[in-house]
Design a protein that fits this description.
- This protein has 167 residues and is mainly α.
- It folds into 3 domains: 1-34; 37-103, no CATH class; 108-134.
- Helix content is 61%, strand content 0%.
- The protein contains 7 helices and no strands.
- α4 (67-81) packs across α5.
- The chain is elongated.
- It starts with a helix and ends with a helix.
Length: 167
């Protein structure tokens, strides 16, 4: 049941909801940007370069055993103390060590293929499965061999051969 107010002024409520939505969308980036980066937050976004193929925070080596872990942590802590945000710290690390230090490649250039190809492969695979299933579900065409007449001479030759085999 619609309220009387909504019937009298239907656009008023929509405007309020629209203003609330715009306010929430405007405030959300400000709230996200106010968080100070941490070693743990940045460490989850970069790989350790010692060869263990894990993020910096999950490197199985002790900091005293892993020179690259200590070096990366020092660089990250220095950048945090300089007041840089996550993006600036990651850009600094990418500038020093290359894209290989990033746990997820940037969505630009050739690295964009890493983000697009799995989705394309999934769609193509789904299409192939659908085509195969539809072919399986089709009813087979009626067999034409039941209505085909056999030549009398061939039938006589077959019967003679069968009688020789049986005896």
């Amino acid at each position: 049941m619609l309220s009387r107010r909504l019937l009298e002024n239907p656009t008023g409520n929509y405007r309020r909801w629209l203003l609330l939505l715009v306010f929430i969308l405007a405030v959300t980036p400000v709230m996200q940007g106010s968080q100070k980066p941490t070693l743990e937050g940045v460490g989850n976004q970069v790989y350790c370069l010692c060869g263990c193929v894990t993020t910096l925070n999950h490197c199985p080596h002790l900091p005293s055993e892993c020179a690259s872990r200590g070096e990366l942590e020092t660089v990250i802590l220095k950048d945090i103390s300089q007041g840089k945000d996550d993006k600036a710290i990651l850009a600094d690390l990418r500038g020093r060590y290359g894209v290989r230090v990033l746990a997820s490649p940037p969505a630009m250039g050739f690295d964009l293929a890493v983000w697009i190809l799995p989705g394309i492969g999934l769609v193509i695979g789904l299409i192939i499965v659908l085509v195969i299933v539809r072919r399986w579900r089709r009813k087979p065409a009626p067999s034409q061999s039941a209505g085909v007449a056999v030549d009398a001479e061939v039938m006589t030759a077959v019967e003679e051969e069968m009688s020789r085999i049986e005896s």
